[in-house]
User: What shape does this take?
Amino acid sequence: MTRADWVLLLALLVGLPWLYLQVWSSAPGQQLAILTAEGPPRILPLYPDQEVRIAGALGDSVIRIEQGRARFIASACSNKVCIQRGWIDASGESSACLPNRVSIQVLGRDARYDAVNF
Amino acid sequence: MTRALLAGLLLLALAGCERAPEVHQHAFFALGTLVEVSVADPDPQRASRAAEAVEGIFREDHQLWHAWHPGPLLDLNRALAAGRGARPHPSIHYLLERAAPLAERSGYRFDPAVGGLVRLWGFHADTPPEGPPPGAAALRDWREHKPSLADLYWDEDQVFSRNPALQLDFGAFAKGYAVDQAIARLRALGIENAIVNAGGDLRAIGRRADRPWRIGIRHPRAPEVLASIAIEGDESLFTSGDYERYFEHEGRRYHHILDPFSGQPATGTTSVTVLHTDATTADAAATALFVAGPEHWQEVARSMGLRHVLLIDAAGVAHLSPAMAERIHFETDPPPPLRLSEPLP
Assistant: This one.
């Protein structure tokens, strides 16, 4: 071991934890992506609470954001499958109103599932 | 010893620099559903271009194969109804070539010749039908004419129908074929790790950098994930469920997976999940096994060359092939009652 080796060893011991913290723990705050048939998705924070009215293919869909979760509370469709789906909060979870072509998805760093089959 | 420690720490330092590649996500509406493309690639620009190319494929297919909007399929159906021959659009020609052996091997439980029946039930509309269901006379009429893909014949590049009631509808496997096209395009663009998910039916290739792709299978009766499966390499996972498109009339639910023989929504099953290499086969098979039901799904699975099948029956029992049992992990506590089938070859 030369003197340079010892300097390198010291630098690694101090620097490694810092490097891992910097690179791996940069999880962004959770967000909601709202997709419609037209245009790019709209990204909203899941805080603070709010209600958003989105124009869809048939009419308006209303999405409520509350305490870090989101759901459809009204939609211009007949089945209301989107409203029955209830709250979504986990990263990667989504809820869609297909007739009205409006979909919402929770964005986050590590989703439990990369895709959901249904 | 100290040198080995130093080398190890250096390796860790290098690993610390390598952030797992971001998965590029792109979503859009096409073929009556939400399509999501996930691409794991070190080059974000290539990932984004590739995902947009997939959107282009789906948009084109949407227009070419639409069963009730003006386009090549509607033109072909008009010609067949009038007893004329027609030269189908090349992509429809190819769909027909792929559909014929799948329909035959499914015992015509999967049959794209059911367009007339789908329309009769009101599912040829941009919004779900409100009922009422078709009357007994209309359904009897359907069963008497009972068109099937076997009624089509070719004279060079022109297709004719022996049965004027035959109307084509590719709803039961167009998504599968589009997903296969999309994966082929992604590969041609140099993408090796991706998922193309068309309304919950998907094909996944490669892996998500640090681990295999994790896919959840939605519970047919609750807003939760019933089971999960890890995919690495190249596999398609397709589910047909009675909860996807349906209407309720006088307290009864009528769903969109129609049994071509009875003319009614198929009974006895709530969902079927098929894992198979190509998405086109998986899509057609999920429909065929749903129609076959808990009593007959195994014979249809054998005839269609499937090994991995999960069927949830109307009582909530999970019927599964041994190969599927090895791959699937139930996420509910307790898991559903399980019934293991004989091995599928």
